[in-house]
Amino acid sequence: MNTPAYSGIIMNYVCTAECRHCMFASAPDCPKEYISPDMAEHLASVLEEAGTSSVHIGGGEPFMNFRALCTLIEALNRHDVGVDYIETNAFWCSEDDLVRERLKKLRGLGVTTIMVSVDPFHIEYVPLERPLRLCQIMNELEFDYFIWQDRYLRKMIRFDRTKRYTKEELERALGKNYITDTASEYGLGMNGRALAIAGNIYANRPAEELASASPCRSLLDVCHCHLDLYGNIVPSGCPGIAAEAADYLNERIDPEKYPVMARLLTGGTKALYAYAKEKGFLPSPDGYPTKCAFCYAMREFLHRTALSADLAPSCFYENMRKHVKY
């Protein structure tokens, strides 16, 4: 069994924000489903068996259900799997007492570090005062944290801390190209909802040029993969593709059960293109900005017409359709 490293747990896909760059297309209208106690125990057991020593926890927004978050950490503790950090956009940090209470609870569970999201995409949904309050109280409690990414905090520190900012306001404050600039600088793959931005950065190429026979070996890279609340593993950088945790870690990618992943692993986007065309897929005559955008377009079609276990979760595709048109 392979050992996930630098990996995380997605305890929910629902989020208070709908950020332009979100890898997992999380949004307020995603199903309000959170990791169950049984699934938390199962995933903790899988990680222990695989030899994983620690993970980070994210979403969605994990603080939307603090009880479920604590239950997950308790399960990880029982299986000797540590928590590197918990990700949050700090939407919940409206009152000092609540912040202190939750941080003390987390410290009692052995959590020592929080990752705080601050950038031009999050400020459309969370006023700056919330993450700043969280950081201030963590300083008081000597609770470790880091800001992702602090370069944007320096850019936005002069902003009105009590308000959310619209795209138009951010263009006036940060420049007309702030969306593409932020996406390019962010340090995450140009995938998920960021595919809507990719078209403004890269020139489109026809499907035939993007249909590569090179296997997508990164699909089975256990470095920074994510285990989700449904018991699946999502490969790093490949949202909308999933396999059951045990199958993934043991590389049991049955082409009958996982026809999309199996083809990408053996014949790349060229093999997936042949499969999608058999199902009726017609590529856009305008082409696609990246190979990942081409892959997504085929998977989105197959999710509607030839659904398979590896095209998950459905909420990813349902939300992506509102933002990415190919």
Overview of the molecule:
The chain is an alpha/beta fold and 326 residues long. The chain has a domain at 8-192: Aldolase class I (TIM Barrel, Alpha-Beta Barrel). The protein is 41% helix and 10% strand. The protein has helices spanning 37-50, 66-78, 96-108, 129-140, 150-156, 167-174, 178-185, 195-198, 207-210, 245-249, 259-278, 291-305, 314-323, and strands at residues 8-10, 54-58, 82-88, 113-117, 144-148, 226-228, 232-234, 243-244. α1 packs parallel to α2 (66-78) and α3 (96-108) crosses α4 (129-140). The chain starts with 7 loop residues before the first strand and ends with a helix.
Quick tags:
single chain; TIM Barrel; 8-stranded mixed sheet; 10% strand; globular
- State the total count of DSSP E strands: 8
Could you describe the largest sheet, including whether it forms a barrel?
A: 8 strands, mixed
What is the end-to-end distance? 37 Å
Name the beta content range. 5-15%
Summarize the SSE layout with pairings:
Blueprint: E1 8-10, H1 37-50, E2 54-58, H2 66-78, E3 82-88, H3 96-108, E4 113-117, H4 129-140, E5 144-148, H5 150-156, H6 167-174, H7 178-185, H8 195-198, H9 207-210, E6 226-228, E7 232-234, E8 243-244, H10 245-249, H11 259-278, H12 291-305, H13 314-323
Parallel strand pairs: 1-2, 1-6, 2-3, 3-4, 4-5
Antiparallel strand pairs: 6-7, 7-8
